[in-house]
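Hi C.,

You asked whether I'd gotten around to modeling the 129-residue construct. I have! Everything is below, sequence then structure, no commentary in between.
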Amino acid sequence: MRTYVKIDRDGELLRVELTKNQYDLVSSALIVFPSLVKSREGRLLMLGRGFDELQSAVADAGTTDLGWRVVICSIEGVHALHSLLVCLPLLYLTEESFVIRVKFFKEQLIGVASGLREGLKKIGDESNL
């Protein structure tokens, strides 16, 4: 799976472009995570305040002419995405149970999280990365 994630500014928001596979990975993670972390407080602790925004942004994602999915959200939403990709693999004891539930390998989530950090560096937000 490709790890590169293209990020651009869209006014005060960020435009995150994901390949179809990356988008499917994120969508799957967003479905599985709330079933594992049921309390709002737990989700807030692990993903920050951008989780609800991220869910809406992914559900409303558009598509580019090249087939990339476009997710537009604030830095808090991007933070929630990064945290989701890093935290979700930690909630499973075995790779097998993770793959059965999420339909992707742990390293694929970590790879996309790394791609998010690299994408942010390219637009100049690397000071806290």
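If it helps when you're writing up: Residues 28 and 102 are 6 Å apart (CA to CA).

Thanks,
B.
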